[in-house]
What we know:
Blueprint: E1 15-17, E2 23-31, E3 35-40, E4 45-49, E5 65-70, E6 80-86, E7 92-94, H1 97-109, E8 121-128, E9 133-142, E10 145-154, E11 156-158, E12 161-164, H2 170-184, E13 188-195, E14 202-205, H3 211-222, E15 226-234, E16 238-244
Parallel strand pairs: 10-13, 12-14, 13-15
Antiparallel strand pairs: 1-16, 2-3, 2-5, 3-4, 5-6, 6-7, 8-9, 9-10, 11-12, 15-16
Helix pairs in contact: 2-3
Amino acid sequence: xxxxxxxxxxxxxxxxxxxxxxxxxxxxxxxxxxxxxxxxxxxxxxxxxxxxxxxxxxxxxxxxxxxxxxxxxxxxxxxxxxxxxxxxxxxxxxxxxxxxxxxxxxxxxxxxxxxxxxxxxxxxxxxxxxxxxxxxxxxxxxxxxxxxxxxxxxxxxxxxxxxxxxxxxxxxxxxxxxxxxxxxxxxxxxxxxxxxxxxxxxxxxxxxxxxxxxxxxxxxxxxxxxxxxxxxxxxxxxxxxxxxxxxxxx
Length: 250
């Protein structure tokens, strides 16, 4: 059994509770990838850190309702961090890519992710492979040996279909090659799509955005890499994984 490490973790389902109420505002613009200007409900305009390197297609429309989290560190240049956005369809989306590794690890530890049970330890950000990579989660002490899990945060959904990536991702393609190499050496290797919204019914590669990633994903799945996907319930209080989703590669 994995030990409980953090009071912010939901004890039943595996998830992340926000420590304090989020700060609501309207998105004015997102720029330079890591910055967003937001008008708060009291009329103040602030610049918030944006913890997402993707295009955030469908999630960064000016005028959207957004929620920011205080980092508690007033010495930081941008003490507020963008966490949630409400789409035009009224769907809450978690945009913090750094949260996805935490959600998957907690989902494993709380036995929500049934496919990744039976391991004794989980290590994060472990160096591996021949292309100078770090695996998001390394599961060890299982009956079949180690399991390498690469986590991808998914925020783009169209007509109920979650799509990854939302921008060309040479790094993502590299990670697929690294996973295939580990599978070829006899280890378990998993690409895990963490969908931080509740309106997706399946996950597919975004072939029109990054055809190379889509081709590579299909190739590595044929070479023994496993694909998993889970959707999340997102609220102003917490984000938590709650259901498996099929990964479809037609």
